[in-house]
């Protein structure tokens, strides 16, 4: 390949570098496919290396993750599926989507089309130029490319992203209002402890007679002393816990332990379980409906499970399937029977009568309905629990304050 020195305008900035291509025309096409407008292009001296002044790769990865919204990718996948189902070629479809997408996603789609022109697969091109895309979507799209069902797999991937987004929105909605109330109440209580209490205590200390404070007042004073000494650690603790969980989940072994413990949490564990059940049943059912064999479908489901404990169970299922066991026997021999008993029952029946994909999709709908019920229950229980906690804290602060004022008044007589 020959080397060509180029100057392009991309994203409003002038960028220079060296690119390798078979010809000057091929180099110009690649640069334009990457979203750049070619200003100058000429053969580079022998031994020249690329010194593009564009941003480093890691900067672009971070920018893509921050600027490309999940709902934009979801909409693009739905539109892509519709265009492909209508018979539109994938390059034409990507070009059309790039014209209607937000700027950063539009650039990623344009670059993806350029990589596809070079002979790479669609899923590989997305991995290169859309780093924020999840493993589930990539796995489904790669299967769709392999068996010719890319249109339905794109729509299915969009449906999974929509379900995950709605679940997040429901959980955030359940916790947002109580969290705001708690923060406001904690702020009022902190103001009382830090600004009002010192004045009262100074007045009491200046009294001629030593006065023993009532128990509520001593409790508030002790709380003030504790927060003054350890308050910074109390604030850091939630963030440190989140970082610790992320670090533990980065490892296969500790990640399995963390995800298994999460399934046993009161209230939240049920929501995590029903969400995972809905995802794996929906994905496996859709893959089987697309014509994929059971072993290949289970391989993909295992790679797309975000819960590592479920992923380990599918590792065992995969091994047993290779040894010749049926899917129902594999589920029965793993924790999946306990986690998804309805799936085991329906799969056992459908293996003899057929329509296993329909049975799994039915389990997915049932699990999704149970997930919605659990999230609704969480929203109903979180608010009273927050009100009890906040009311107890604020009540203690105010009661301690008024008891201190009453004691100070009596000692002054």
Reading the helices and strands in chain order gives: EEHEHHHHHHHHHHHHHHHH
Largest sheet: 3 strands, antiparallel
Gross geometry: flat
Termini separation comes to 99 Å
Average per-residue pLDDT, rounded, comes to 78
What class do helices, strands and sheet pairing give? Answer: mainly alpha
Low-confidence stretches: 46-56
Note the topology.
Blueprint: E1 2-10, E2 13-21, H1 24-33, E3 37-43, H2 57-67, H3 70-85, H4 90-100, H5 103-117, H6 122-129, H7 135-147, H8 150-205, H9 215-249, H10 252-262, H11 268-289, H12 294-304, H13 308-322, H14 327-332, H15 336-339, H16 341-353, H17 356-411
Antiparallel strand pairs: 1-2, 1-3
Helix pairs in contact: 1-5, 3-4, 3-8, 4-5, 5-6, 6-7, 7-8, 7-12, 8-11, 8-17, 9-17, 10-13, 11-12, 11-17, 12-13, 16-17
Name the features.
413 residues; mainly alpha; three-stranded antiparallel beta sheet; 17 helices; 3 strands; 6% strand
General description of the model:
The structure is a single chain. The protein is mainly alpha-helical. The protein has helices at about 25-35, 55-65, 70-85, 90-100, 105-115, 120-130, 135-145, 150-205, 215-250, 250-260, 270-290, 295-305, 310-320, 325-330, 335-340, 340-355, 355-410, and strands at about 1-10, 15-20, 35-45. Strands 2-1-3 form a three-stranded antiparallel beta sheet. β1 and β2 form a beta hairpin.
């Amino acid at each position: 390949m020959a080397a060509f020195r180029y100057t392009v305008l991309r994203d409003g900035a002038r960028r220079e570098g060296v690119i390798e291509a078979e010809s000057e025309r091929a180099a110009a096409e690649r640069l334009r496919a990457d979203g750049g407008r070619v200003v100058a292009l000429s053969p580079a001296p022998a031994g020249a290396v690329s010194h593009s002044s564009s941003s480093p790769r890691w900067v672009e990865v971070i920018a893509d993750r921050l600027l490309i919204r999940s709902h934009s990718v979801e909409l693009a996948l739905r539109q892509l599926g519709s265009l492909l189902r209508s018979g539109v070629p994938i390059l034409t479809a990507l070009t059309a989507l790039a014209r209607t997408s937000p700027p950063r996603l539009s650039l990623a789609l344009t670059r993806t089309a350029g990589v596809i022109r070079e002979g790479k697969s669609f899923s590989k091109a997305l991995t290169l130029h859309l780093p924020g895309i999840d493993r589930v979507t990539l796995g489904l799209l790669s299967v769709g490319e392999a068996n010719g069902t890319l249109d339905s797999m794109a729509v299915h991937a969009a449906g999974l992203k929509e379900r995950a987004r709605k679940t997040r929105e429901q959980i955030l909605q359940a916790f947002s209002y109580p969290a705001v109330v708690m923060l406001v109440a904690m702020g009022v209580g902190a103001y009382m402890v830090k600004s009002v209490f010192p004045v009262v205590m100074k007045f009491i200390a200046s009294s001629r007679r030593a006065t023993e404070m009532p128990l509520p007042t001593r409790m508030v004073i002790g709380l003030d002393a504790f927060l003054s000494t350890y308050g910074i650690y109390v604030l850091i603790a939630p963030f440190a816990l989140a970082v610790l969980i992320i670090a533990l989940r980065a490892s296969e072994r500790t990640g399995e332990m963390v995800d298994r413990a999460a399934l046993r949490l009161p209230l939240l564990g049920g929501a995590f379980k029903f969400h995972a059940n809905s995802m794996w049943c929906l994905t496996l059912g859709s893959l089987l409906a697309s014509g994929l064999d059971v072993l290949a479908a289970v391989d993909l489901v295992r790679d797309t499970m975000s819960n590592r404990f479920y992923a380990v169970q599918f590792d065992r299922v995969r091994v047993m399937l290779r040894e010749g066991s049926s899917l129902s026997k594999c589920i029965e021999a793993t924790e999946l029977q306990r986690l998804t008993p309805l799936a085991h029952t329906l799969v056992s029946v459908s293996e003899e009568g057929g329509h296993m994909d329909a049975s799994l999709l039915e389990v997915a709908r049932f699990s999704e309905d149970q997930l919605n019920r659990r999230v609704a229950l969480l929203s109903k229980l979180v608010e009273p629990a927050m009100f009890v906690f906040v009311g107890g804290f604020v009540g203690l602060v105010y009661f301690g304050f008024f008891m201190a004022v009453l004691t100070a008044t009596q000692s002054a007589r």
